[in-house]
Amino acid sequence: MHMNTPPRSTIRLTRRGRLVLIATGAVVAGTAVAVPLLSLDSEGEKKPTTLMIPEGWRAGQIYDAVDKALAQPPGTARKALGKAHLKLPNDAEGNPEGYLFPATYPLEQNGKKTTPEALLSFMVNTANKKFNGAPMAAGAQRNAMNVYQAVTIASIVQAEAATRADMGKVARVIFNRLERGMPLQMDSTINYALNRSTLKTTDADTRIESPYNSYQRMGLPPTPIDNPGEDAMRAAITPTAGDWLYFVTVKPGDTRFTNNYEEHRRNVAEFNKNQKKKAAAS
After folding, report:
1. Helix H segments across the chain?
2. Which positions ≥6 away from 276 have C-beta within 8 Å?
3. Do 33 and 64 contact (CB within 8 A), yes or no?
4. What is the pLDDT of residues 123-137, one digit of tens each?
5. Which domain range does residue 29 map to?
6. Burial class (CB in 10 A: 0-12, 13-18, 19+), 64
7. Neighbour tally for 102: CB within 10 Å
8. One domain, residues 163 and 263
9. Do 40 and 119 sit in the same domain of this protein?
10. Phi, psi of 121 (to 5 degrees)
11. Is 27 in contact with 38 (CB distance < 8 Å)?
């Protein structure tokens, strides 16, 4: 299911973290690695005092952003995981993916620069507050799953849905497939396994050996595949009613959901034609 998404067009941020504005307008750019924060002390301007984590960033992107925001050598935040004593669910087995909640965090506490451990703990504590409260936890239970499974579904919804309106429908596709014992076949899980973001998943990609290969493995991936926001979480616990099993974003603003495989194949052919046209134009 080639289900991919044009970036959201609001200035707030693009969901896949292609561009993030941080406090004073210093820029951290996207999927691969963040650009160093611009420090403008010499011109009398202050360094950023906050770090904004966008919805849908993967843990690796967040570690890079924390290192840069706190002017630490690359790899510092990742190493800090051990001493951060993060309050994660048992299912997470110490991996905070899914629980580094997207929000704006202060880089100073009591006038002192914060530490990577404190910043990561703050993110996880924020996630726990959001996810373990009444609506989310009760909603997960109502759908016969634990909160960690709901966060895992929300992370796929976050990666796959082109718009907020589509989130509930994508969640429904996931539930419908799980109920029918169909593999999820979500390209976003393959992108996670290969640590990339792309619109094009090849046949070879769908055969990779990975617990995140949802073309070959049944059920949910072993962990969330990014850090979802509240809209995606709400969609995961209150999916839109429908019988869809397939969807594809044929072109920006045109995502088609269907329960008919032949119709889905026609939609995918149209997506492929649009991709070819775009490639030829560029």
Report:
1. 59-69, 76-84, 116-132, 134-142, 147-160, 164-179, 187-193, 230-237, 261-281
2. none
3. yes
4. 999 999 999 998 999
5. 19-132
6. buried
7. 24
8. yes
9. yes
10. -60, -40
11. yes
What are 97-131's pLDDT values in tens digits? 999 999 999 999 888 999 999 999 999 999 999 99
- CA dist 265 and 153 (Å) reads 24
pTM listed for this prediction: 0.83
Last residue of a domain, one of 132, 155, 189: 132
> 167: which 2 tokens?
């989130």
| Nearest in space to 47 (alpha carbons), one of 101, 122, 108 | 108
Residues 72 and 151 in one domain: no
Q: Please count the residues of the chain.
A: 282
Q: Are residues 198 and 127 in the same domain?
A: no
pLDDT (tens place) for every residue of the chain, 282 residues total: 655 443 333 333 333 333 333 333 333 333 444 444 544 444 445 678 999 999 999 999 999 999 999 999 999 999 999 999 999 999 999 999 999 999 999 999 888 999 999 999 999 999 999 999 989 999 999 999 999 999 999 999 999 999 999 999 999 999 999 999 999 999 999 999 999 988 788 999 999 999 999 999 999 999 999 999 999 999 999 999 999 999 999 998 899 999 999 999 999 999 999 989 988 998
Q: Are residues 37 and 72 in the same domain?
A: yes
260 lies in some domain: yes
* Shared domain check, 169 and 86: no
Same domain membership, residue 270 and residue 150: yes
Question: How far is residue 186's CA from residue 215's CA, in Å, rounded to a whole number?
Answer: 7
3, part of any domain: no
Task: For 123, list phi and psi in degrees, rounded to 5.
Answer: -65, -45
Nearest CA to 274 out of 260, 257, 256, 258 is that of 256
Q: How many structural domains comprise the chain?
A: 2
Distance CA 62, CA 69 (A): 10
Would the CA dihedral through 228, 231, 237, 240 be positive or negative?
negative
